[in-house]
TrEMBL record:
Recorded superkingdom: Bacteria
Protein's recorded name: Uncharacterized protein
């Protein structure tokens, strides 16, 4: 029959002492910190002593490390020449260099697994998890390390950035402008085994066909390299590379090419049926907004001088490809599309010699909008 055993043994007969394990020389100790290990009494210390330091993490999981003392067991006393104590001195016992980590792990069933180490280099013959074929683990690597690598997913490298630099500033340019390409630079991220991507190739004006050193992360453009587009769109450069496991990597850098839209006021007497030249005169005179837009949508305040002048008409002129205005809202609530008249479509040539069709809207009355009036065109 099973007997109930108390959590703590206490004396009921002083003739039979109870001995604590900490009072026995050579016992295996479990302590809560290195500091506690250092306080193990001298009479309980010995060469080969095993001590486990166990503590709990924030989730209550027990974290343990096991050490074996491999320092000197008997040395001459530092303050008593010729005296060799039969115990291990504090200076030696507390010296971290005298302790070897022989940590053991526990599996899901609570069985202790010795954290064995390789006694010779080992080269992988297959690709498994985060271990690539041909990777070598040096002698001393723990089996735990190898097993963890086997079950860990492989994360391929990447081209984390690409930047192309120009003599002109910005990343948005007007149609027709010539852009001088100067250089390119990029950064990379290694894969989960620490391998950099290789075999770089940069395609785009100024760089195509140039050899790239795998170590360098920059390249100077060929002398005289320029890009130009006569229509709105995107100009791109693409960097490619290959990962250690053959992954094809790429990163693209792009600039935008756009047409300008124009908003402002002028007292120039635009006739009912103007010519291209007369519309160009209006465009040259208005200056509140000359944005590189991608649509007819525009939100703007009439704050820059002329829209509210008594003899100045308000104009909104944009690429005809954007279509007609569907609405104009004043100060967030009042619909005022009827306050404008579509004059028509006209050819306009920008300062870079590119001609495009532009749609012209003109306020029906001069001085129609006060300074500070918010207008939203859609």
């Amino acid at each position: 029959m099973a007997l109930s055993f108390p959590d703590q043994l206490v004396h009921s007969n002083d003739n039979y002492p109870i001995v604590d394990s900490k009072s026995v020389s050579g016992a295996s100790f479990t302590v809560g910190s290195i500091a506690e290990r250092d306080l193990i009494p001298q009479y309980a210390r010995r060469l080969g002593q095993v001590v486990t330091v166990a503590s709990q993490d924030g989730e209550g999981k027990v974290i343990a490390a096991t050490y074996r003392y491999e320092g000197d067991d008997k040395k001459e006393h530092p303050t008593a020449p010729g005296v060799f104590p039969d115990y291990i001195l504090d200076t030696d016992w507390k010296d971290a260099l005298n302790w070897k980590d022989i940590t053991q792990d526990v599996d899901g069933d609570g069985n202790i697994i010795q954290n064995a180490q390789l006694t010779a280099d080992l080269t992988a013959t297959l690709t498994v998890g985060n271990i690539s074929q041909g990777r070598t683990f040096v002698a001393g690597t723990t089996l735990e390390t190898i097993l963890r690598e086997m079950i860990s997913p492989y994360i391929k490298p990447s081209l984390s950035s690409l930047q192309v630099s120009f003599a002109e500033s910005g990343s948005v340019f007007e149609v027709g402008v010539e852009i001088t390409v100067q250089s390119a630079s990029w950064t990379t991220v290694v894969d989960s085994e620490g391998n950099e991507p290789t075999t770089f190739n940069l395609v785009g004006t100024g760089f195509s066909g140039q050899p790239i050193n795998d170590v360098d992360r920059s390249l100077t453009a060929l002398v005289g390299s320029k890009v130009q587009s006569l229509t709105p769109g995107i100009i791109s450069w693409t960097l490619t590379a290959i990962g250690d496991r053959g992954d094809n990597l790429s990163r693209t850098f792009s600039i935008s090419i756009r047409q300008r839209s124009f908003f402002g006021g002028t007292n120039y007497p635009l006739p009912a049926s103007p010519t291209n030249a007369e519309v160009t005169e209006v465009i040259d005179r208005i200056s509140t907004s000359r944005s590189l837009a991608t649509s007819k949508n525009l939100t703007i305040n009439s704050t820059q001088a002329t829209e509210d002048a008594g003899d100045h008409f308000t104009y909104y002129i944009y690429p005809a490809s954007y279509g007609d205005l569907s609405q104009v809202t004043q100060d967030g609530s009042s619909p005022v599309l009827s306050a404008f008249t579509k004059v028509g479509d006209f050819d306009y040539t920008n300062s870079y010699g590119v001609t495009a069709s532009y749609r012209v809207y003109k306020s029906n009355a001069p001085g129609a909008f006060n300074v500070g009036t918010k207008l939203e065109f859609e």
